[in-house]
UniProtKB/TrEMBL annotation:
Cofactor: FAD
Species of provenance: Knoellia locipacati
Name of the protein this chain belongs to: Electron transfer flavoprotein subunit beta
UniProt domain Electron transfer flavoprotein alpha/beta-subunit N-terminal: residue ranges: 23-216
Keyword Transport tagged: yes
InterPro entries: ETF_a/b_N, ETF_b, ETF_beta_N, Rossmann-like_a/b/a_fold
Length: 263
C-alpha cells in the first residue's frame, strides 16, 4: 500500500512566536520550530498500517529551509522517504495555495498518480484552521473521511469512527481516499536511537514549484485571499486586585464578581 502523509513544520508553542514586521506573516525562520504535534498522530497511523502489511510511507511538507526538520522527525519515527517542497515564492501562501502545492506534491510523490491513502492531521497547531485536508481531497478528486478517532482497512475500503459531543459515527469510503485523524487515534512513538541513525540514510527530495508544474503567480502572499493587516503583542498581565480579609472577605469577593458581571 502506498501511503502519503502530509505534515507541517510549525513554530514551537513554547517559544516567543511573532509576525514579520515587513509583511505581517508568521515568522517561521526566526523562531524554533518542530513537526506539528497533531501531525505526529497521522504519521503514527500510517506506520501502523504499513507495519501490519506491505506498505510504504512517504511524508510531504511545504515550507522554508528549516521545514525539512519536520519530515526528518517523521523519518526517525519510521517513515520510508520524504519530500520537502521549498520555494521562495511560497512565502505567505494561504490555505488554498497550500492545498494546491500539496496536491501536486502528493501526485508526484505517488509516481504521478494517486496513492492508496493520504493521511493528515486534523489541523495545524499554528493556524488551527482544519480546512486544508478538505481542500486537498477536492484537488485530488478523493473522497474524504475526516476527524478519525479510529481507522480500519478492509479490502478496498477504509472505515473510521468519528467521535462527537453527542454520538460516535462510523463512516466508510472506498480507496483511494483521504483521512484526517484526531489526537485520540493513537499514541505516537518516540524516535529510537536505531530510528534516528536509520533516518540519516533515507531519501529526502527537495522540490521547487517548477518541479511540480505550479505557477508561482497562484501562490504566495500576493495570491492569498486573506492577509493580516496589523498585529500587536499581547500586553503584559496586570497585577490582580488583593483583598484583605477582615471578616468581610466573602462580601468583598461577591461584590467584585457582581461588578464584573460574573454573578
Amino acid at each position: 500500500m502506498n501511503i502519503v502523509v502530509c505534515v507541517k513544520y510549525v513554530p514551537d508553542a513554547q517559544s516567543d512566536r511573532s509576525f514579520n514586521e515587513a509583511d505581517n506573516t508568521t515568522d517561521r525562520e526566526g523562531v524554533e520550530g518542530l513537526l506539528s504535534e497533531l501531525d505526529e498522530y497521522a504519521v503514527e497511523e500510517a506506520l501502523k498500517i504499513a507495519e501490519a502489511g506491505e506498505g510504504e510511507v512517504t511524508v510531504v511538507t511545504v515550507g522554508p529551509e528549516q521545514a525539512v526538520n519536520a519530515v526528518k522527525k517523521a523519518l526517525q519515527m519510521g517513515a520510508h522517504k520524504a519530500v520537502h517542497v521549498s520555494d521562495e515564492a511560497i512565502h505567505g501562501s494561504d490555505a488554498a495555495a497550500t492545498s494546491l502545492i500539496l496536491a501536486e506534491a502528493v501526485k508526484k510523490a505517488a509516481g504521478d498518480g494517486t496513492p492508496d491513502l493520504v493521511i493528515t492531521g486534523m489541523s495545524s497547531t499554528d493556524g488551527v484552521m482544519g480546512v486544508v485536508p478538505a481542500m486537498l481531497a477536492e484537488r485530488l478528486g478523493l473522497p474524504q473521511v475526516t476527524y478519525a478517532s479510529e481507522l480500519t482497512l478492509h479490502g478496498d475500503k477504509v472505515s473510521i469512527r468519528r467521535d462527537g459531543d453527542a454520538a460516535s459515527e462510523t463512516i466508510e469510503s472506498t480507496l483511494p481516499a483521504l483521512v484526517s485523524v484526531t489526537d485520540q487515534i493513537n499514541e505516537p512513538r518516540y524516535p529510537s536511537f536505531k530510528g534516528i541513525m536509520a533516518a540519516k540514510k533515507k531519501p529526502v527530495e527537495t522540490w521547487s514549484l517548477a518541479d511540480l508544474g505550479v505557477d508561482a503567480g497562484r501562490v504566495g502572499l500576493d495570491a492569498a485571499w486573506t492577509k493580516v493587516t496589523s498585529f500587536a503583542k499581547r500586553p503584559p498581565r496586570e497585577q490582580g486586585q488583593l483583598v484583605t480579609d477582615e471578616g468581610d472577605g466573602g462580601t468583598k469577593l461577591a461584590e467584585f464578581l457582581s461588578a464584573q458581571k460574573f454573578l
